[in-house]
Specification:
mainly alpha
Length: 422
């Protein structure tokens, strides 16, 4: 069965839905509950951190449950109700009732619905990641599905970021309801998967060890992205001397470039070794950040180039990391365990986000930087630029070692062979 362009678009629309709630969840929600109800930023921050950790722990369990669902429509079974619950919970979160009396009630209300939104978004993400390899055996079609998903994810981020700046919850609520309806109808119209292998036993030590060899460099690289993302706005405002609005514009440029990057690297992945392309992305990212040490308020416009290039490269990284994971899972014959593998990957990504915020921010504070109080502090550009350079370099070393032993499973010839067999 050949997957059409329309089908890949319908599949990717759920990525648009997930990203439409994920970004505002940690931008809009703190604003609503600190300004409207007067909760302290510290209480809101701690609550969101605990929710993130609780949500991360559930990801492997959700993946396991998806694996054990014996139905040709198992991904629809998980995605459809999760999408509905996520949207309803998010609408309740950004439109809290008027009868919340105490700060404790407000905090519990916020934490409960944030946990539901975050958990259901995790279910959607895991199901979306595991679906392509059980829908088709053709690598080219799998990469097409991933590409469409990631592109629509970036579109969702851009739209959500734009609507979030208006602080109009009514408009955003209407947008979210429409996207949810379209995404659900699109998912339900897709054909059932050709096979739904059930895991015969618990994932063994050998496949876990084999996957860890790939996931470690991917995790370290994603950690560098999280660190840079955490410090981005601080760098723009306090080092470059630009406004918050300018920072938002630069983020829009970044995500637009990432959208283009997904398309470009997906075309390249059909003809070249996936692991070689991933290594190229790491090298180019390191090279892109190095000139940043020469940028300050006198030539701040030069930072646009870095935003364009890093966005283009991160789009490629997200695409290629998913393809690497799929090829690795196939090579060790663990398609039946793809849910728990991607669930574990989701756990690592969320822990990476928490680790990034929990390390780079305290490090800057230790070095003497305080937002808006100590602008132009030398530690800010040092940590912002050095973190991705060092972490990408470590990732490059580890993926090179992995390639030495397993490089053959990521070759372009494998793409062509599997596609012809299909």
């Amino acid at each position: 069965m050949v997957i059409t362009k329309i089908q890949s678009l319908k599949y990717g629309l759920t990525g648009l839905l997930v990203s439409s709630t994920s970004l505002p969840l940690y931008i809009v929600v703190p604003t609503i509950y600190t300004t409207t109800y007067g909760l302290s930023l510290a209480k809101v921050g701690i609550a969101l951190m605990l929710v993130r950790l609780m949500d991360a722990i559930t990801d492997p369990l959700v993946g396991r449950l998806i694996d054990k669902t014996g139905s040709s429509n198992k991904f629809k079974v998980w995605i459809t109700p999760s999408a509905i619950v996520m949207t309803v919970s998010y609408l309740a979160l950004i439109n809290p009732p008027d009868n919340l009396q105490s700060n404790l009630q407000v905090l519990l209300y916020m934490a409960a619905f944030t946990l539901v939104v975050s958990t259901t978004a995790g279910i959607l993400s895991i199901a979306l990641q595991a679906w392509p390899m059980q829908w088709t055996e053709a690598i080219s079609e799998q990469s097409e599905l991933i590409s469409r998903r990631e592109q629509l994810t970036f579109i969702g981020v851009i739209i959500a970021a734009t609507l979030s700046t208006t602080n109009d919850t009514v408009v955003f609520s209407g947008y979210l309801l429409v996207v949810t309806l379209i995404a659900i109808l699109s998912i339900l119209s897709l054909p059932p998967i050709l096979k739904s292998p059930l895991p015969s036993k618990v994932l063994g030590w050998h496949p876990v060890k084999s996957m860890a060899g790939l996931m470690l460099p991917l995790f370290i690289s994603s950690l560098s992205n999280a660190a840079a993302g955490t410090l981005f706005m601080f760098f723009v405002v306090d080092h470059l001397g630009l406004s918050q609005g300018s920072g938002g514009g630069l983020l829009a440029i970044y995500f637009t470039s990432a959208f283009v990057g997904v398309w470009a690297w997906q075309r390249a992945s059909n003809n070249y070794s996936t692991v070689n392309l991933y290594m190229l992305v790491l090298l180019l990212t390191i090279a892109t950040f190095i000139p940043g040490f020469g940028i300050d308020e006198t030539n701040a416009s030069s930072f646009i180039v870095i935003c364009v290039l890093t966005g283009f490269l991160v789009g490629g990284e997200l695409l290629l990391s998913s393809i690497l994971m799929i090829k690795k899972i196939k090579s060790i014959d663990q398609i039946a365990h793809s849910g728990i593998i991607f669930g574990s990957w989701g756990l690592f990504i969320k822990l990476g986000l928490a680790l990034a915020a929990g390390t780079v921010l305290p490090l800057l504070a230790y070095l003497g930087y305080q937002p808006e109080i100590t602008p132009k502090h030398p530690s800010l550009p040092l940590v912002y630029l050095a973190s991705p350079i060092i972490l990408k370099f470590i990732s490059l070393i580890l993926i090179t070692l992995h390639k030495y032993n397993y490089g053959h499973i990521y070759s372009a010839k494998k793409n062509i062979l599997i596609t012809r067999m299909h």
